[in-house]
Design a protein that fits this description.
heterodimer; A: alpha/beta; Rossmann fold; 3 domains; 16 helices; 25 strands; B: Glutaredoxin; four-stranded mixed sheet; 4 strands; about 25% helix; globular
Chain lengths: ~575, ~110
């Protein structure tokens, strides 16, 4: 055999997909095929549900029949419990794809009188497996045997025999076990089921209940080792892994408008990058929601869909407030381009919010998402947890190229930039709105604190909410002061007046000079005339002189001649 | 080894209580045989004339395990008189069998 052939023979572990949302990603393919997996956890942590979904989805999604050996609930109860999730167990049983056997063990009803083995159990299991041609088996929960029968030696030996039997038949088995005090399971079943162990945790923190899943062990495979938030909703169990394990998503050079033309101008003239994350932070009443609404308005105007998650105001209140500044969102909502989801953060845990957002975004497929405000979630989790949740949201949206805007309330006390250290690093663009107090009034200033990947303006602009929309104007920066609001208006008027005065004086000067020029010109003319006159005189004189001379000479000659004549 | 259905009574008598006993086994193992022998001996001694033993081989009839909720073998089920009682093991501990069958009170 060549080297290439040899390497191909060493195949990776064959995995059995569960179909449970997120679990297959976290286990990188599913549970180990042909091996037993242990699901342990406290009461009400979701073990039986996971096991049921494993079997049911195995049938409906992967065409692998399964059997469920239940020690705690009857088949009727089990079927009824999952009916609310949309699973019709009776139909599956009728179609001979699934079999449930309820084993009743009651210690008081049983008398142990000598040697025995658990062949009866095997017989029942085998019957079910052969009836449906099962590939998947669930035992829920094997610890009931320990509760009912007292001979632990026999029990453990039989359990070992059972797992060997399963392995021989190549069945993928899920065993559930109740959490023990110091051990993973109360009776230490993890000794036998050591190929894959998953732990389900259910705790209550600050009155909010959260569920977590952790893969304690998975022999022969790489797996996520962290605790993943899980939740149980009307579709069953979902595990929420961070969607992109590596930070690589495709980016685009396309831009979307911010909704305020002068703000676009501050950002290379074009606006936000499509698919980027934008943080708008500021103190109370600074106009964050208005900026977010302007973004939504501009997107909807182009016919794109938008989703608005509000943790503070109801949709009607938001729309009414935005109408007062000239942004009317009602037509978009009526056309179905804009969907609002408002709820108080305290209603659910962070995981539930995250999963709800995932689901809504997935179904609606918007081009833009607003979360307003993000800081309200502190009532449900601490800043680390919120950051972890936001990472997941941002990843999810970036992969889909959805532009997202998050508003964040900062308290007026600390410096505005300091309080955002947690989440600002996740954001591509950060707009800061600040209130400036001067001369008995407060005005809003806006500036682009950062915007990755573009040459953004570093100028502060005054930010006004008028009934015609959001207006950005330049601030007046004078010697040692920044003027906004009415002070700016006064100063601008003053400036205008000054300009007028200057202009007038310039005009006057010009007139004076022209007058002088006229004067000089006429003077020059008269001098030129006199010059010309003198020139003529000189010429005349010269002529006269020559003529005189000639005449004198003639006369002398004449005289001379006259004298010589006789 | 008697097969399913064969009656094993001695003299048919009209008694106040008639005992219906069912012994579940899985194949003709030595343990099953031991259980049957022990059971027979016990019945002859304490229930002479008013019992009926039925032996069910789960390897031949696996579907019957579900009805009486059998998981261990051998299991002896007292179907009559009521209430139902289940005794598991090869029945070698006669005292416990008697307690389990309510033929002797628990100490």
């Amino acid at each position: 055999m060549t080297a290439k052939q040899v390497t191909r023979k060493i195949s990776s572990l064959d995995k059995c997909r569960t179909g449970i949302s997120g679990l297959d990603e976290v286990t990188e393919g599913g549970l180990p095929r042909g091996r037993p997996t242990l699901i342990c956890g406290g009461a009400g942590s979701g073990k039986t549900l996971l096991a049921m979904e494993f079997i049911i989805r195995g049938i409906t999604e992967f065409h692998e029949p399964g059997v469920f050996m239940a020690f705690e609930e009857t088949a009727e109860d089990l079927a009824r419990n999952v009916a609310s999730l949309g699973f019709d167990v009776h139909a599956l049983i009728a179609k001979k794809k699934m079999a449930i056997d309820y084993v009743h063990i009651e210690r008081s009803e049983i008398e142990e009188t000598g040697e025995y083995d658990l062949e009866g159990l095997f017989v029942r299991l085998n019957l079910m497996i052969e009836q449906v041609g099962a590939k998947r088996v669930v035992i829920d929960t094997v610890e009931a045997l320990f509760g009912g029968l007292s001979n632990e030696g026999i029990l453990r030996a039989e359990l070992r025999r059972m797992f060997r039997w399963f392995k021989q038949k190549g069945l993928t088995v899920v065993i559930t076990g109740e959490q023990g005090e110091k051990t993973l399971t109360r009776y230490g079943i993890e000794e036998y089921v050591s190929d894959c162990v998953i732990f389900l945790d259910h705790r209550v923190h600050n009155q909010i209940s959260t569920r977590r899943l952790r893969i304690v062990k998975y022999r022969g495979s790489k797996h996520g080792t962290n605790e993943y938030p899980t939740l149980i909703d009307e579709h069953g169990l979902s595990v929420l892994p961070i969607s992109s394990i590596g930070l690589n998503y495709a980016v685009t050079n396309e831009r979307v408008s911010t909704g305020v033309p002068r703000l676009d101008a501050m950002m290379d003239g074009k606006g936000y990058y499509r698919g980027s994350s934008v943080l708008i932070s500021g103190t109370a009443g600074s106009g964050k929601t208005s900026l977010a609404a302007a973004f939504v308005d501009s997107l909807c105007r182009k016919g794109r869909r938008c989703m608005y998650f509000s943790f503070e105001e109801s949709p009607d209140q938001l729309m009414r407030n935005m109408r007062s500044i000239g942004i009317d969102l009602r037509p978009w909502s009526a056309k179905g381009l804009l969907e609002f989801h408002s709820l108080r953060p305290q209603l659910y845990g962070l995981e539930m919010h995250l999963a709800t957002m995932h689901k809504l975004i997935r179904n609606f497929n918007p081009a833009g998402v607003v979360v307003d405000p993000v800081t309200n979630l502190t009532s449900v989790g601490d800043s680390d947890e919120i950051k972890a949740m936001l990472v997941r949201v941002i990843d999810y949206l970036k992969i889909r190229g959805i532009t997202s805007v998050y508003t964040s309330l900062t308290d007026g006390g600390s410096a505005a930039e300091q309080s955002e250290v947690g989440i600002s690093s996740l954001m591509d663009t950060w707009l800061l709105v600040r209130m400036l107090e001067s001369g008995n009034e407060r005005n809003r200033l806006l500036y682009v604190l950062k915007s990755r990947g573009m040459g953004h303006s570093n100028q502060m602009r005054e930010f006004r909410l008028t009934d015609k929309g959001i207006q950005l104007t330049d601030v007046y920066v004078g010697p040692g002061q920044v003027l906004t609001g009415s002070a700016r208006l006064v100063q601008e008027a003053r400036d205008r007046a000054q300009i007028e005065v200057d202009r007038q004086s310039a005009e006057r000067k010009q007139r004076e000079l022209e007058l002088e020029r006229e004067n000089l010109r006429s003077q020059a003319e008269s001098i030129a005339k006199r010059l010309a006159g003198i020139g003529a005189d000189i010429q005349l004189l010269q002529k006269y002189d020559t003529a005189q001379l000639q005449a004198a000479i003639q006369e002398r000659r004449g005289l001379a001649r006259a004298r010589k004549a006789d | 080894m008697p097969s399913m259905g064969k009656r094993l009574t001695t003299q048919p008598e009209m008694t106040a209580e008639f005992w219906e006993l069912r012994l579940y086994v899985a194949g003709h193992t030595p343990r099953a045989l031991t259980a049957f022998v022990n059971l027979k001996k016990l019945c002859e001694e304490h229930l002479k004339g008013k019992y009926h033993i039925e032996v069910v081989d789960l390897l031949e009839n696996p579907q019957l395990a579900k009805g009486d909720q059998i998981l261990a073998v051998p299991t002896l089920v007292r179907k009559l008189p009521e209430p139902m009682r289940k005794i598991i093991g090869d029945l070698s501990n006669t005292e416990r069998v008697l307690v389990g069958l309510d033929l002797r009170s628990r100490r």
